[in-house]
Amino acid sequence: MSDARFEPLDFERLIESEMRRRVAENLATMRRRRSVREFTREPVPWDVVQAAVEAAGTAPSGANMQPWTFVAVTDPDLKRAIREAAEEEERRNYEGRMPDDWLEALQPLGTSPDKPHLEDAPVVIVVFEQAYGVRPDGTKAKHYYVRESVGIAIGFLLQALHRAGLATLTHTPSPMGFLRGLLDRPENERAVVVIPVGYPAAEATVPVIGRKPLEEILVRR
């Protein structure tokens, strides 16, 4: 016999004009989202960060295992340690681990091994995926579609932070094993992305980029 429990769906059906208004407003907002590498050190409201992470936690996940942990780092010393470790890995990447085609792809973005944003941003969120769960008795619980589930949650988080008026960057130092040790995370967790969060510096600039038009990313069959 199934142990599944159900409850009535809480769903608001909108008239088409309201649907179009909302989706247009969201599109206009998201078109302005850019990855930022220059932050002020001005504090951001902690309750806003909390609400954004809570929104990320509503993302769908395989078998509803919710295989994610969000570690929000605000301690200056810990942010500095993350920056130093990340820059060391990045220097090794730029000096030999990255293939030439990767370096060529990064050139238009103006990136480098220097990562001051990891120290300047008032909050740095490190997202971990839980490769498996741990039951109260210490036994392992299998997780399903972990990477896909965590990726969706990260998307929810980025949108929530952007709509709240905060700038972000998705940073993936490679390898990222040092983050589990620095942040004292358990063996079943692996870092996926580092997200500096804050207000952009007054002098912040972003690369001139293009976005693929709708006809290149949408196929209707």
List the helices and strands and how they pair.
Layout: H1 16-31, H2 46-56, E1 68-73, H3 76-97, H4 100-106, H5 117-120, E2 123-130, E3 132-134, E4 140-142, H6 146-163, E5 167-168, H7 177-182, E6 189-198, H8 214-217
Antiparallel strand pairs: 1-2, 2-6, 3-4, 5-6
Q: Whole-number radius of gyration?
A: 20 Å
* SS-derived structural category: alpha+beta
**Lateral strand order in the biggest sheet:** 1-2-6-5
Coarse shape: globular
Q: What's the CATH H-level homologous superfamily?
A: NADH Oxidase
CATH topology, anyone?
NADH Oxidase
- What is the top-level CATH class? Alpha Beta
Relative strand content: 5-15%
Query: Which architecture per CATH?
Result: 3-Layer(aba) Sandwich
**Major sheet description:** 4 strands, antiparallel
Number of strands: 6
How many domains? 1
**Span of the ends, CA to CA:** 40 Å
Total of helices? 8
SSE order in H/E notation?
Answer: HHEHHHEEEHEHEH
| Uncertain residue ranges | none
Look at the structure and give the mean pLDDT: 94
In terms of quaternary structure, the protein is single chain
Percent helix, as a range, is: 25-40%
Structural summary, described in words:
The chain has 221 residues and is α+β, with helices and mostly antiparallel strands. It has a single domain, classed as NADH Oxidase, CATH 3.40.109.10. Helices cover 40% and strands 14% of the residues. The strands form two sheets. Strands 1-2-6-5 form a four-stranded antiparallel sheet. Strands 3-4 form a two-stranded antiparallel sheet. A hairpin with a 5-residue loop joins strand 3 (132-134) and strand 4. Helix 2 runs antiparallel to helix 6 (146-163). The radius of gyration is 20 Å and the shape is globular. The mean pLDDT is 94.
